[in-house]
Amino acid sequence: MQSYALNGRLSALELDPGESLTLIDSPSGQRWTLELLAAGVASPQRGPLPYASDREGITQYRFQATFRLNGVELNLTRSIPSQDNFRDPPCVQGLNLWLDATGDIGEYLGTHGPSRRCFPKKACRIAIWPAGQRICPQRLHPWCPLPSGSLRVEDCYRGEDVWMGPYDGVECHGGLDINHPAGTPLWTPLALHEQGNFQRLGVEGANNNRWRGWHHWPDGESWFLQSHHHSRLLVEEGTPLDAGVQYAEAAGVLNGCHEHSHFVFGIRHADGQEVLIDPWLLFRQMYLDLETAFRRA
């Protein structure tokens, strides 16, 4: 059984059935044993999932996973797309557990774009961090003006482009869309050590503006944050930025039927392996940090 250290921030783990991990909270020394028993797509209907082939329908599906946490069986389920995407994670035995994706989603959905990085390499991907802790030590600034209360599934492009949502009914959406008008400000959620466009409209055939920023943690792990569809970058590329800096004007390029931004959250482990994870976990922490700031005011 392998050990995995929880180093004071969110961790993204992938497991196959029968695989076990000993999780160790570095600050407190608390330990958990987590084993994946089963994972996969589940449909409330018999037979193939009812995917739409055009823009007239929205596909709905579920995925689920069964774990054994400290010897106790635990079932987690997600319904895609729905307001269920914007809930609090279950907290069990002192751990926050967010079921992020299952590997067999790729048997039913293609990808929105050429990359298949949103699909787990194993049967299940889960995000974990200890109860009572933030997902990272730093306070998170809103990435964009946040809708009152919470994000709403109906404001995710056509109501389908949540994380792992079925864009056009047939493509897995490897990000989170939030509808807002062209020119909406985008701010840095946390301090970034480097940032800039990795695709620019009209350069080498790119049809969109896509930006990425990096935060490097002291233990060698890095977080990367991406936003797409911005019309104008307002900062010099390659320079570090503090949290809360407006870096772009959103939603002005390749917007389809709704002006929106596409948000991506990823982790590069110290060994160079990268994994994408649900951006809602960042936005949830932004809401919590705004609430805390309001109570202190």
Please provide the count of β strands: 21
First-to-last CA distance? 47 Å
Estimate the strand proportion.
35-45%
Assigned CATH architecture: Distorted Sandwich
The name of the CATH topology is: Glucose Permease (Domain IIA)
Q: Give the number of helices.
A: 1
Helix share, percent? under 10%
What top-tier CATH class fits best? Mainly Beta
Q: Tell me the CATH superfamily.
A: Glucose Permease (Domain IIA)
Describe the structure.
The chain contains one helix and 21 strands. It has one domain (2-296): Glucose Permease (Domain IIA) (Distorted Sandwich). The model is unreliable at 44-54 (pLDDT under 50). The chain is mostly beta strands and 297 residues long. It starts with a strand and ends with a helix. Strands 13, 15, 16, 17, 20 and 21 form a six-stranded antiparallel sheet that branches. A five-stranded mixed sheet has the order 1-3-4-5-6, with no helix packed on it. The protein has one helix spanning 280-296, and strands at residues 2-6, 11-15, 20-25, 31-42, 61-69, 72-80, 91-92, 95-102, 110-111, 124-130, 165-167, 171-173, 176-179, 185-187, 194-199, 210-216, 222-228, 232-233, 246-249, 260-268, 274-277.
Quick take:
The protein is mainly beta and 297 residues long.
Key phrases:
mainly beta, Glucose Permease (Domain IIA), 5-stranded mixed β-sheet
